[in-house]
Amino acid sequence: MVAAALCLAPAVALGGCGGGADAPASASPAASAPDREPSAAAAPGGDRGGAAAGAITVSEAWIPDPAGAERFAVYLAAANAAAAEDALVGASSPSAEGFDLVLAEDPGGADMRPVDEIPVPPGGSTELRPDGFHLMAVGAAPIAEGDRVDVDLVFRSGTEMSVTAPVLPASAHPADQAPEDHGGHH
Fold first, then answer.
1. Distance (Å, rounded) from C-alpha 94 to C-alpha 177?
2. What is the CATH number of domain 44-168?
3. Keywords in UniProt for this one (predicted)?
């Protein structure tokens, strides 16, 4: 289910989420174009993607458009029904060479630092959003509004799942999550 190449290159310089020439530390095959057809994995109504496996439920998965050259952000909510903490530790997609797990260090989300994992508390949830934790695809194929991108997620507990994230207009950010300046990729 999950591609073998989980590129979590903390050494990649993250001066922002905008397009750049940064490449993941390990080379992967070129990214392929995203699916342009609706997917059964999408959330009801087709607005945002969702999936569940084990004690983890992912909802509200989406990608803001316009995405930057060779990069795009993935936002979602991950809920953990288990009594123990879990964490998102990896991601992969046919539409990207790899993903960085990052934490925005300012309200606008322009300054980020790589993290090894994104915690999901027991009996709670974590939102991946522009001004906090989120996934950054690197070496990405071009995507546009209306595309659907398959993203495979790996959690510390061993839980793995695939979610289909639609590319939505940047205006789809909830009002409390709209980035002030997030590197120009949304």
1. 27
2. 2.60.40.1890
3. Signal
